[in-house]
Amino acid sequence: RLAETGDRVGGLQAIQRSVELYEELYQQNPAAYAPDLASSLTNLSIRLAETGDRAGGLQAIQRSVELYEELYQQNPAAYAPDLALSLSNLSISLAETGDRAGDLQAIQRSVELYEELYQQNPAAYAPDLASSLIIEVYINEGNKPDKRNSWVHQLNRAITLLEPYAIEGTQNKVYLDWAYELKRVD
Fold it and tell me: Global pTM?
């Protein structure tokens, strides 16, 4: 919450402390504290990236994905959403560091998970699926700019999924605007 009020330094310090505490608890009882540690690592990765520490952010989100992978193997229904979100964040971190093969693999897995979740509950997962589809198009454009036309269908699907949820001032609206922007790029 501190970062949301503009206190990025305070927000970063708070989430770093949270990760330290959950790390200690995780060492004592991994089964009980893995979800909290993974969630805190995801938040830490975002805060580090915001401060320009991309390497630190990448390290944190990679650890988060590892923990969510383990949790997902134990209970797919409970942890598929968290794993999908962490994979989406990982793809963005990898893209920022120039790892195009890694970012594509992470976002494709995220899309697969969100597709499954969407099939089970369309209203709950349409925005998440749409966002991951948009990120996948963006990454693929960077990898294969000559294949742009093949991604228009995917963008159209993402736009259709996202439009009902794209209220001004929300992250969904940001992603919707980004999808329209990607469609316009020649």
Answer: 0.89
